[in-house]
Amino acid sequence: MMKKIISVTILIAWIVGFSIGFSKAYNKTDDQSLVKSVVWEVTGPNIEKPSYLVGTMHLMCEKDFAISPKIKSIYKKSEQAYFELDFDDPDLNSQMMAAMVAKEPLKERFSEEQYAQFAGFLEGHSQYKIEMFEQLEYIAIISALTVESLACSNIKTLDNELTNLAQKLDMPIYGLETVADQMQAVAVMNPKKGQLMSEEELAMFTELDQVLNKMVELYQQEDIVGMFDFMANYPGSVDNWDEVKRILFDDRNKNWAAKIPGIAQAKPTVFAFGAGHLAGEQGVIQLLRDAGLTVKPIMELN
Q: Cα separation of 238 and 241, whole Å?
């Protein structure tokens, strides 16, 4: 996947559940305390019962999909669930669809040369014509290409399945942020007018299936450090990556980590969000530890 694509977690906008971004700005981590697990227990001062972090990958082929027994187990110990968005909100879909509509047509957002380049790429490498995307935000276009790259017709979204699980257990569902928050963040990825894609970036589009397969493999192994290292070693660069990383990852992680302690003190809670937000010096795990909480991996059922 080209590095300007971040999978994060509106079903349409954050297609890759890892909130995936590839960059040299991510240094390879040697933090051995982050063992292979996508489920982490949170305890600490004034937290009477544990809460839990669950790293998700939002979309994958049905053949690769499963909810692990330990995720089901921690749900039964919890009283409420927080996702990146409030997936129980009846207005969420309409909010998401409205957010995908651009204020200006693509022809006005792109230069003539830029528009022609992208149109040629779509015609040569996808089933889409550029006219289909004229009124859509850039992230919606990238999302459509990402879905197309999945090597299957039956697609599962872990967010939907975990929402269904919470509903079956009569658990209240809330969001750590809003659709507006996410769209404001993802706007940092919009290409500047006249900014042509390099040959490397164009080539990366053709590798989406390989990248997604690797991410699914690492996610199934619950290897959050491996996912982190895979990002660090993926080729290519983004000129404004420091800004992209800060807005899409660091700032959002800080916002969530600031909310989690108070929520966990009130009720035992499942916090489910893209697994890419767990690891790293500015990841949610480390931020919670810095705040004085104990965060440890759940390896087996208990």
A: 5
Give the 3-state secondary structure of residue 296: strand
Please name the residues in contact with 247: beta carbons below 8 A apart, sequence gap of 6 or more.
185, 188
Integer angstrom CA distances of residue 50 from 40, 79, 214, 270, 294 = 10, 11, 32, 9, 10
Rounded Cα gap, residues 9 and 253, in angstroms: 13
Residue in 275, 216, 165 with CA at minimum distance from that of residue 60: 216
Residues 66-119 pLDDT 10s: 899 999 999 999 999 999 999 999 999 899 899 999 999 999 999 999 999 999
Task: Count other C-beta atoms under 10 Å from residue 150's C-beta.
Answer: 20
Distance from CA of residue 166 to its chain's centroid? 20
pTM for this predicted structure: 0.86
**Residue 112 CB: number of other CB atoms within 10 A?**
9
